[in-house]
Amino acid sequence: MIRLLSLLMALLLALSASAFAAETLTIDTSITHQTIESFGTSGAWWSQYVGLWDDKYLNTQTTNRQRIATLLYHPTYGIGLTNYRYNLGAGSADSGLGNYWDPNRRAQSFETAPGVYDWTKDEGAQWFVKEVTRLGCTEVVLFFNSPPERLTISGTAQVKKGANKNIEPENYAAWAVYACDVAEYFISQGVPVKFISPINEPQWAWDDGQEGCHYEPNQIAGVYIAFLEEMRKRPALAGVELSGPESGEWGGQTTRYVSVILGNSKLSGHFTAVDCHSYWSDTQSKVSFKNWMKVHYPHVKIRMSEWCEMVNGTDLTMDSAIHLAQCLQEDLTVLDVVSWSTWVGVSPGGYRDGLIHATENGAGEKSIVPLKRLWAYGNYTRYIRPGFTRVETTGAKSVDPVAFIGERDGKAQMVIVLINEDYRPQTINLAGDFSGYTKMDVHETSANRDLARTYSGAVKTEVTLPMQSVITIVLSE
Asked: 46 and which of 231, 240, 346, 420 could share a cystine (Cβ 3.0–4.6 Å)?
């Protein structure tokens, strides 16, 4: 019996040692993939009120709204986002029409009458987009959830139950005029408008809850053509592109929506990329979509413009942070996305969406809580900068690796991001040609650290990931 127990113990120790054995991650810079254009977030449903928070943050000279903008967009003191999605409202906040369970889901329109504008409206959201531009945002997307209410069939920014559309083709041109007028205004204010996106998640019903509009696949080409024709009339919009189809998922009818755009002779030459969202999408649906794009539209880039975990409940832990990082890593490596954005930068809690919780009590006191989601996102966004190119990695799949090379501050860099979702540390051995690099920095987000630097020194090839962590390794010349 003693001998049997000894043999079992030896077997368990051997299995344990095998389970904890270090994996090898090989990085091959000779095989390159996509080049990153931006990482970002959306200002929908929060910037309109957070942008008015001009009271002081704690006992500092910084305001609450400045603190939030800094956390999201400052490249050193925040996570360095460079894309911002500005929600152009349909006017539900002005009319009060429609079925909304949260008043913050309503949005203003700049119109006071057709062709007449009040540029003081949406004051908070305007402050925010100008502030993030000052901090380094280089790519602003003006996106609609619904056409302006005055142009809709229902007279509201929501679709009548059972209807398959909420705007007639004869109103597309007037809508495009409004969008282009707003785009010209923002550009005149120094805002770097790069995209206009008229359609959002066209496959859903959108008959209550928020502004939204349903479109069948064969309806969307007319919208984009009307916008393109109007944009081409305006020299100030020469550098602005259309974004779409903003499908809510990679499966389902997404290939039909994309085909309508890229298969249209008037549109195919304009769209250099397609934007879609990563909701309700498993790995296989992403693989299938990417393979379909390779066959039909191999030269068109892919952008992921909206995602959150879609789970109820407030989470302050690493759990939702790791889910965010895993979705981002998968979209980078499976879809080869050149841009990636979270749904909202700020939320009041109760849902796994915002990167920062911002609340106000009955006495008007503000509370700002940067979440682990913010810092885990920052493991990518602060270090993988626009212009960095993804390179091939093999091995160590358990830590969801991704690697990029680029230049920053005149020096060549390699950035490697790893995820450890396990409740034990993991050790990874790095393999590849690191001869051009002399310095190594490691930055960690975990239960106890928020994007903190945990190592700075000579390049080493063995790295340990703490339990439930996201780490970034930066190799520099």
From this structure: 346
